[in-house]
């Protein structure tokens, strides 16, 4: 079996393979658009060839300004037998190519709510997670996807916090402080691998590179003028999102997350948002409860396969 990155002459085969979407994020429209703008690349797409025929394909997604991909967007198989070893091999090629740079690519799979009752979704997901685990991405985090639409009602704005924009230095400092006691699996993983400062810096860089406006970000202060937390309303390719939100450990337990989420929602709606999305880990109960209190609805699940901590 030959493993290689794709080339222009593979396009017809790729188009045929991606037509069967299964649990993959890739669609024909997304593929063509992302190949044109650098979010998909031949250098980030791998095929396995058997006797001159492509039998498997892995497509990775990344941001145009980065040299490495962030996550697998699709895995396809048209060979005989078990796809798991072939997919694992394809995933491993990307991990090997970027591990030296210290990058930690992941595999994100989007499934609808109630997927456990849909046998074909369960089967497609299990094969892909098995391949990811075999390639080293053995930790799986289930993230709840929340959505806000105007018909769900605009949450009331805070009467106890005051909000202000701030510079990167101030956001970096609050990102470092909020890491303490975080229930977010990706944060816990990042901090186990690097310092809180390095992880916060990376977060700042990622949120800064997102397509939302930097001046939407807010710090929240209580009546005594004490810093309580922050909210990062922004956007990704799919539209407006609540990128990040945090309450400083010493202020937790007063539902200040509600005030921050309400403010972030107002900022985005003020900028014209007609749909807002946000994710949180299934295990981050306080955050999930906050989304639900503010009228956000859980519409889907994101499975994230990543390297284990340590
Ligand atoms: C998620 C978060 C914003 C919630 O803060 P909050 O508004 O103070 O939470 P609530 O007041 O609704 O807390 C509800 C309960 O959960 C507890 N709780 C909140 N955050 C907690 C944490 N990180 N660890 C353990 N318990 C926590 C509260 O003490 C409270 O307990 P109680 O009912 O016994 O008093 C906060 O935990 C945080 O900043 N975490 C780190 C960043 C993060 O995970 N952001 C979300 C991802 S975008």
Automatic annotation (TrEMBL):
Pfam families: Acetyltransf_1. InterPro entries: Acyl_CoA_acyltransferase (IPR016181), GNAT_dom (IPR000182). Gene3D superfamilies: 3.40.630.30. GO terms for molecular function: acyltransferase activity, transferring groups other than amino-acyl groups. Signal peptide: none annotated. Keywords: Transferase. It comes from the Bacteria. Residues 174-310 form the N-acetyltransferase domain. The keyword Cytoplasm does not apply. This is GCN5-related N-acetyltransferase. It comes from Kribbella flavida (strain DSM 17836 / JCM 10339 / NBRC 14399).
């Amino acid at each position: 079996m030959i493993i290689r990155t794709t080339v222009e002459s593979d396009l017809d085969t790729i188009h045929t393979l991606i037509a069967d979407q299964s649990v993959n994020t890739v669609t024909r429209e997304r593929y063509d658009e992302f190949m044109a703008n650098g979010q998909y690349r031949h250098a980030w797409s791998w095929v396995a060839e058997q006797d001159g025929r492509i039998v498997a394909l892995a497509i990775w997604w990344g941001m145009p300004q980065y040299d490495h991909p962030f996550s697998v967007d699709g895995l396809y198989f048209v060979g005989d037998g078990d796809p798991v070893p072939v997919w694992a091999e394809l995933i491993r090629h990307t991990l090997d190519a970027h591990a030296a740079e210290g990058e930690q690519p992941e595999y994100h799979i989007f499934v609808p709510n109630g997927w456990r009752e849909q046998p074909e979704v369960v089967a497609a997901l299990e094969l892909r997670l098995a391949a990811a685990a075999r390639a080293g991405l053995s930790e799986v985090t289930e993230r709840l996807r929340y959505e806000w639409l105007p018909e769900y009602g605009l949450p009331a704005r805070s009467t106890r916090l005051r909000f202000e924009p701030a510079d990167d230095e101030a956001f970096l400092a609050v990102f470092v402080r909020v890491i303490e006691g975080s229930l977010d699996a990706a944060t816990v993983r990042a901090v186990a691998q690097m310092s809180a400062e390095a992880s916060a810096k990376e977060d700042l860089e990622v949120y800064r590179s997102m397509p939302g406006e930097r001046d939407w970000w807010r710090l929240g202060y209580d009546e005594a003028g004490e810093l309580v937390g922050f909210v990062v309303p922004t956007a990704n390719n799919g539209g407006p999102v609540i990128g990040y939100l945090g309450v400083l450990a010493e202020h937790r337990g007063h539902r200040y997350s509600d005030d921050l989420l309400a403010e972030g929602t107002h900022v985005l709606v003020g900028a014209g948002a007609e749909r807002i999305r946000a994710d949180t880990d299934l295990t981050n109960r306080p955050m999930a409860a906050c989304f639900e209190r503010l009228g956000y609805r859980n519409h889907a699940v994101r499975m994230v396969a990543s390297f284990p901590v340590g």
